[in-house]
Structures are given as C-alpha cells and as structure tokens.
# Entry
Amino acid sequence: MNKMHKANRERWDSASPHYSVWRAGDWRQSLTDPSLGFERGSLELLHQYVGHDLEGKTACVLGSGDNYAVFALAGMRAQVTSVDISQAQLDVAAERAAELGVEVTFVQGDIADLPMLADDAFDF
# Structure
C-alpha cells in the first residue's frame, strides 16, 4: 500500500466514529428503500443492466464507505461483499448488518490491489 492510500485508510479509521454518528439517520431504511443507497440515476442503471431481481446474484461494492449501497443491494436479495480500506468503517457496517439480520461479507482492502478477490467472482 502506498503512502497516500495508507494515509487515506488512517484518516477514515479515525473519522469513522464521527462519520457513523453523522450518517446514522436512515441507514436502516436503505434495506427496504434501495433508492437511499444510490446516487441519483444509479439505481435505474442497475436495473437496466442487471435487472430488478437480484436474488442469487453476487455483488461487490468497492470503497463501500457508509455501506448504504451494500444494505440496499442486500435488501434487493443480492449476495453482497463490501470492500473498504477502513477497517473501522467495516466494523460499523458489520454491527449494522448484524442488527438488521443481513448476511454480508466484509473485506478490508485497498481497491487498487485486491488479490484476495478472485477474478470473475461477482455478477456486478
């Protein structure tokens, strides 16, 4: 991991407690309202290219951050892997997933170098 990526990880690890409180509002609803997990237009693109029925499809969210997209995809019945450089962000997300009763795979890693993820392991 280069110095810039390491500094980014350290910044997110230290900011995570404050960020998770700030973004605590509607993360639970992203499970039932997928529009909360995506930027404007992104959900429509997902439906266009992947479809509306995600059951049994595998998804990987790179740089998952607050994990809103992860929970939205899980709510759409996809099998989701969340990858983020910050273990602290992933720890918050894992606690939230447990609270929601959602099964998500959490992987700490630098998305510029992911040898732990197999090629062609995900549908999207």
The CA atoms of residues 6 and 107 lie 16 Å apart. The chain is about 40% helix and 15% strand. The first helix runs from residue 3 to 22. The two ends are 25 Å apart (CA to CA).
